[in-house]
Write a structure and sequence with these properties.
The chain is α/β, with parallel strands linked by helices and 320 residues long. It is built from 13 helices and 7 strands. This is Thioredoxin.
Length: 320
């Protein structure tokens, strides 16, 4: 994304014929947006020293704004976004349905903004509906993501990116916002930070709710088969399998013992039982069964120190 050019904001003051009135109104709106971006003094380089801090308004520190955590924006609404950015950091994602990468980037950013629980606002800008913003920011690729802090646009990234790449730079942006006096947060509720259920997941969840665990397992397996990158579906499948095993009354063995420990909240002990069994087994089929069960429990547990330690131990055991 190129830096904003103040010349972009110059309004064409020449009188237009009456037959072009509609076009003139649209151009005026876009020019207004461009002036707002130009007036922000252009993009800020995070690596630059001596960036003048925007003086916060009295009482801004710790302020919680009652604004949407995630919202859409077009040219007519850009002034609201500029106003919000003077209290709360704003992340703008410019996207298009024509861009195959836009959907995955938006999904990733939505997940991060919910995890951060109000540390910043995510604004989704469909470029076809916001030509003024798009031109003012001189967008050259889609998706384009930039921050707006104290009314100043800050380049972030273009094209595809993964969460592990985005989060460290986002942390730098939020630190810069604090230094610039933008210290507010978005006021959020439990519903705001709860991820919406993907439509393709609803049927499997409904089957589980009705008590049909076998049907739910089959539904989750189909979802994972269709989309091997749906890690949430993988975790849901592992979770329902765990529930189903708890109702099956299987014989007592290492697998069942590990399930009992895991369901009791003793995750580290459950991992220890399974990995110890794998370490002492020389049967390839048995080792694969144990490995699969361990990975299932990892998915259910999510990221934790116990999981990280067990992953390292499992990697060593698999090399034996």
């Amino acid at each position: 994304m190129a830096e904003s050019d103040p010349s972009m904001a110059q309004h064409n003051s020449q009188r237009e014929p009456a037959s072009r009135a509609a076009h003139s109104a649209e151009a005026s709106e876009q020019s207004h947006v461009q002036r707002q971006v130009a007036d922000s003094h252009g993009a800020v380089d995070l690596s630059a020293s001596g960036v003048p801090a925007a003086a916060p308004a009295d009482g801004d520190a710790g302020v919680q704004l009652n604004v949407p955590l995630i919202r859409d924006c077009d040219d007519a609404q850009f002034e609201d976004i500029m106003a919000t950015s003077r209290t709360v950091p704003v992340l703008m994602a410019l996207w298009s349905s024509r861009s195959l990468e836009s959907s995955s980037v938006l999904s990733m950013l939505e997940g991060i903004v919910r995890e951060r629980s109000g540390a910043f606002q995510l604004v989704k800008i469909e470029v076809e509906k916001a030509p003024g913003i798009t031109r003012a920011l001189q967008v050259q690729a889609l998706p384009t993501v930039c921050a707006l802090i104290g009314g100043r646009p800050i380049p972030f990234f273009q094209g595809n990116a993964i969460k592990e790449q985005v989060v460290p730079v986002l942390d730098e942006l939020l630190t810069a916002a604090q230094q610039m006096g933008v210290t507010g947060r978005v006021a959020v509720s439990g519903e705001d930070v709860k991820a919406p259920v993907p439509p393709e997941h609803q049927h499997a969840l409904d089957l589980e709710e009705s008590g049909d665990l076998d049907g739910a397992i089959a539904a989750w397996e189909k979802i994972v088969e269709r989309n091997a990158r749906d890690h949430d579906a993988e975790a849901q499948l592992a979770r329902v399998r765990l529930l189903e095993r708890g109702t099956a009354g299987n014989a007592d063995n290492d697998l069942d013992h590990a399930d009992e420990l895991f369901n009791a909240g003793q995750h580290a002990q459950a991992f220890d039982v399974l990995i110890s069994a794998l370490e002492h087994s020389t049967d390839d089929d048995r080792r694969e069964e144990l490995r699969t069960r361990i990975l299932d429990l990892f998915r259910v547990a999510g990221s934790s120190p116990e999981v990280n330690a067990a992953r390292r131990r499992l990697a060593t055991a698999l090399m034996i």
